[in-house]
C-alpha cells in the first residue's frame, strides 16, 4: 500500500500540477478511539476562478489514501477525492487558514468496530484550521465526518480528528 501510494505521488508530481503532500495521524471519536493515518496530495486547478479569488477563497483538490485501525478485525483502507475551499487569513506575520469541503470516499469494509457504515461508498465532509509556518510547511487540526447520507439502511457514520502536517512545493 505504501509503495503504491509513493508511486502515485511520483507519477502525479510529474504529470499534473500537484501543489503539496500531507500526512495526518488521528483517531475516531467513537468509544474505541481507533487510530487513523492518512497520506494525501493537494492539487491546484489549472485555471483561476475569479469570483472565488476576489473573495480570498481558493479551490484545491484533495486526493488521499487512509488506513483506519480496526480493533475487531482487519484494518480498513480508504480513499477519497474532495474539492476543498481554502480561506487564508493573515495576522501580523503569521498566515492562518481555514479549509472545508465535501467529496466522495471509498472504504474497503462496511463495518468499523461496532459502527455499521452501510456502504463502501460514502461522503467525506472535511474541515481544517491551521497555520502556515513558512511557504513550505503548515500544520493543521482536521475534522472529517464520513457518512453515506442515508442512502443505505445503515448509516452509523464516523468522525475522525487528526493532526496534519503538509509540505508545499
From TrEMBL:
Any one GO molecular-function label of the UniProt entry: hydrolase activity
Name of the protein in its database record: Acyloxyacyl hydrolase
This protein's record includes keyword Hydrolase: yes
Pfam families reported in the protein's UniProt record: PagL
Signal sequence region: 1-18
InterPro entries: Lipid-A_deacylase-rel
Record's keyword terms, sorted: Hydrolase, Signal
Organism: Thalassotalea euphylliae
